[in-house]
Amino acid sequence: MFRLRLIYLYEVFFMSETLMHDIVIENRQKLTATGIENVDSYEDDCIIAQSECGEIVIKGHDLKISRLSVETGDMTVDGGIDSVSYNAPKVSGSFLSRVFR
Fold first, then answer.
1. What are phi and psi of 97, to 5 degrees?
2. Domain that holds residue 70
């Protein structure tokens, strides 16, 4: 079993917020994730979901979302899992450019 725990820390205008997100992959056949906010795209070979820590891209074959709860943020995916990657949330401009808009 492979366990990945991400703690994403960021500061916006001197306010800190800690976001929790877990992914557990069992035998490359089952993926369980927490902190899921939305599923943007779902196909047999690729699932794109939004988490509290950014966009997640799950690639594989015969992928099926067997459980999804947007209220609790839990998602379970069954199938052959080849890769999981993250795309970081985009921050537009530097701190000073956001202040002086």
1. -65, -30
2. 2-90
State the pTM of this model.
0.70
Number of domains in the chain: 1
| CATH code for position 10 | 2.60.40.2000
Residue-wise pLDDT tens for the chain (101 aa)? 555 555 444 444 444 455 678 899 999 999 999 999 999 999 999 999 998 888 999 999 999 999 999 889 999 999 999 999 988 765 555 656 656 65
> Does residue 8 sit within a domain?
yes
Please choose, from the candidates 86, 87, 79, the residue with its C-alpha nearest in 3D space to the C-alpha of residue 26: 79
